[in-house]
Each structure stands twice: as structure tokens, then as C-alpha cells.
Amino acid sequence: MVAIWYLLILAPFIAIPILWWNYRRKIALKEELSGARWEQFISTAKSAEVPAAAATTAPGYQRRERILDAGQTLVYLLLKQGMADHEILVNVALADLLDLPAGGDAEREQRRRQLAQHRVDFVVCSKAMQPVVAVDLLAAEAPAALTTAPDFKSLCLHQAGIRHVRLLRNALPARQEIRAQVLG
After folding, report:
1. DSSP at 103
2. Mean pLDDT for the stretch of residues 53-81
3. CB-based contacts of 17-21 (< 8 A; 24+ apart in sequence)
């Protein structure tokens, strides 16, 4: 009878480590599969080329095959996964992000047209849809743009209190680092 009581007392000390080990094993397997799928997705996105727009003989419009190319899709998914507590907007004109300062109608219209000519690839917004960060995806041959003096787009965003981040297409941050790099 005493042996049964000892077994009942020892049962949690045996069962809990076994259950914990089994749980950790399942989590590790799940992470390994997730990492493999992610690596496969990245390799597919890097190797895929943007298909050229199909030339048609008949006049009219056709639906685009994709709104975002493979690299832009990868950055969108990185932002969406890394910043789940934010909203991500794609291909936004500066005129939609910024309010114009007070001035004459002609001056305001000229500034609005100037802002409408510039776009950012992604905008990270709070849940209240307030822009927080503007993200531009740069081509592989554009690292000099990161070190030069701020351009018109950067100056406008800085004046409005919106952070401007530029990411290189061929040197994207890891999915664990995207939040820190974009939000600073």
C-alpha cells in the first residue's frame, strides 16, 4: 500500500518532464518545417523574374498578372508577418500620405502635383491607419542612394514625421529582424 502512495507522489515528477520533452520536440519540428517552407519561398521569389507585359493586338485593357513582383511580394510578406500589429499599404503616392501646407490655390495645386509624382513601395500604418514608416525597395544597383543627401521624398516624409526606410532588394533583412530595421 505504501508503494502505491510513493508511485502516486512520484508520478508528476515523471510525467511532467516527459510531456515537456514531447511538447518541445513538436515545437522544434514545427519550426524546422516553417523554416524550410520559408527558405523555399525566398529561393522561389529570388529566382522568379517579373514577366513582361503581354503585348496585345486588340486595343483595351487587360488585368495584370501580378500587382507586386516577386521581390515586392517577399518584402510585403516580411512586413506583414514581422509587424502583425500594423497595417501594410502598397504603392502609395506621397499626395495620399501628406497634407499640404496652407497657401494659395495655385501653389497648393503645384505642390499636390509634385507630390503625386512620387510614390513609396510600402507604408506601415498603425491600426488607426496613421502612417508610421514609408518603405522603398531599391534595386540591387542602387546602394549609392542610401548614402547620398536626402531626396525630395525623404525630406517631405521627414517634415511630416514619417520615417523613410530604404531596403535593398538583394539584401533583405531576416524575418526576425524586419521589425527592428523598419521601426528602428
Report:
1. -
2. 78
3. none
